[in-house]
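user: can you give me the structure for this one chain? tokens are fine.
assistant: on it. calling the predictor now.
[tool input]
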Amino acid sequence: MESLAVLASAMLGAVLGQLAPGPNLLAVATAGLRSGRRTALAVSLGVATGIFCWVTVAVAGLGAVLLLNPELSAILSICGGLYLLYLALRAFLRAGSADPIDLTDDEAARRGGFLRGFLVAITNPKSALIWASIATFLLNAGLSTSTALAFAPLAALSGLAVYCVYSCVFSTAPARRLYARLARWVEAMLGATFGAIGGVLLLDGFRSLSR
């Protein structure tokens, strides 16, 4: 029973973190608006896979290494920042292009969506530190490594459920019609948002390395 209580506490923290706005949500929302539900669900699956990997790595002990070595966290911040700046550049190019914005939902879009979701989740240093902290909490609470590892699929499934809901919300017909009318403005705002988050991560990473 004590182990279940610890896992339940960790799960509550994980779900609250997944509900909060951040790069994962932005990736899912933009996929839903641009390409529809199936691509957004593919992005959600990619994010959930990234969560599973982070929890597994954290419980295995590499999370503690990340918490104790600011240099590794800084490098991850730089990688995450660069990737988000890449997404920002793509959004700005869509906003400034004279060509119609592609709203198709095909197999190629879904494959790219899965990879995009995975990369956003796996290069997010804030997410990495959160999962490392949760793994530390589980192990410090007395759970065995094998029991703590059972949290990895639970965290991934909770993330998949949360982001699938967001996928359905942002891929509704009214949301996509509104996006189609305001696509260039929306892409410009998305570019600014991705750029701002990516810039902060990049600066944080370089500042940490320079200390």
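assistant: here you go. Residues 37-68 form the longest helix (32 residues). The chain is about 85% helix and 0% strand.
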